[in-house]
Amino acid sequence: MGFSEFLGNERIVAALRGALRSERVPHALLFSGPRGLGKYTLARMFAQAANCERLKDDFCGECETCRRVALLADPEHLIELGLAERGESADAATVERIPLILQTHPDVWALVPDPVRLKSPVARPMLRIGQLRAVQRAAYFQPMGRRRVFILDGAETMHWNVANVFLKILEEPPGSATLILTAPSPYALLPTIVSRCLQFHFAPLSQPDVENILKDKTDRKPSDRKLAAQLAEGSPGLAMEMNVEETADRRRNALRILERAAHGQGFAPLFASTSALAKDRESSFEDQLGTFYGLLSDLLELTSGIKEPALRNVALAKELAALAHSIDSRWVMRAIAGFDGLHAGARRNLNRQLGLDALATSLAPES
Predict the structure, then answer these.
(1) Is 181 exposed, middle or buried (0-12, 13-18, 19+ CB in 10 A)?
(2) Quick one: which of 185, 207, 202, 206 has its CA closest to 194?
(3) Quick count: other Cβ atoms within 10 Å of Cβ 337?
(4) pLDDT tens digit sequence for 54-93
(5) By C-alpha distance, which of 105, 159, 111 is closest to 136?
(6) Sheet of 28-32, strand order
(7) What distance, in Å, lies between the first and last C-alpha atoms of the chain?
(8) Mind listing the pLDDT tens digit for each residue in 199-231?
(9) C-alpha atoms less than 13 angstroms from C-alpha of 301 in its C-beta half-sphere
(10) What pTM does this model have?
């Protein structure tokens, strides 16, 4: 029990333990990196260690405080309870007046993007101003234990006006509290917020490490473990929850869209492919864009003449090599810029279908 259970990114764990040991704990931390690397998990472990009744730079997992904070390990159950208590038909004012806060110990709060409703959640959950105002009030209370810890999971979902409320907390940080933000990238947050946080970037694990984790924690066959580890790109969390066949199909379909766009093989089948992708509700639009970015990263390496490219999509190596022969790095960079525009447009409720169609059309060769 303790930090030894956390897998990967040992340097981050060592730095956090050192801060606890020296009693020089930062007032704000930013955990960034791809989904599934344990950012939320380590934030919760830090909250346990910061308040453990027996240990100073680790957590025992057995004292009353450790056991209560450990309940945050299952946020989905707590989210369901919170939404049920607020009511399925809550209006906008009620959502802000009764913010979604996950709390199993007085000194530790976890805030997650609010889906508003349990049965029909909103398409893009986000951290809301009511949640941030609650933190703003509570951060200055004296802790019952050693330290108050506020975990803001999915900090990148804050709108700029909500982020400005949070910035006020960071400008006058409470001495006995630590705020931990998690986000896929520091560039997804306001620079003024990032500059006031001690940053830790979570690196992906090696494929053998992910396979070993799957071997210990799942009953998958060796072939499935290997493929899941390849598709997860170093993320054990994604590998464990992944439907391998669906993920592999999704990547093949995305590659097919790139192939048809690059070859100009008629717009009817191309638009049919983008329509199917846009209607896929099993994965978020951000995840879908991430699939394209992974493929384009491989294509960039293949078209740049790198002798031993480190492909992220090993299972599609043959198809990627074939496509790379018919395009160049300038085409890949145009595609990346186009998907950057799609990503920015998604935050402004861009129509997925029209955006994908326009981008695919722009990548077709000129006649």
Answers:
(1) buried
(2) 185
(3) 12
(4) 999 999 999 999 999 999 999 999 999 999 988 888 888 8
(5) 111
(6) 102-105, 108-111, 148-152, 177-183, 28-32, 198-201
(7) 64
(8) 999 988 888 888 888 888 888 888 888 888 878
(9) 16
(10) 0.81
* Tokens 């409720």, located at residue: 349
Return the amino acid letter for 75. P
Plot region of 284 (φ>0 → left; ψ -120 to 50 → alpha; else → beta): beta
Contact 19, 42 (CB under 8 A): no
Per-residue tokens: 301: 């390496």
What pLDDT, in 10s, does the model give residues 19-41? 999 989 999 999 999 888 999 99
What number of residues does the chain have? Answer: 367
Taking the C-alpha atoms of residue 322 and residue 303, their distance in angstroms, rounded to an integer, is 11
Q: Which residues contact 93 (CB under 8 A, 6 or more apart)?
A: none
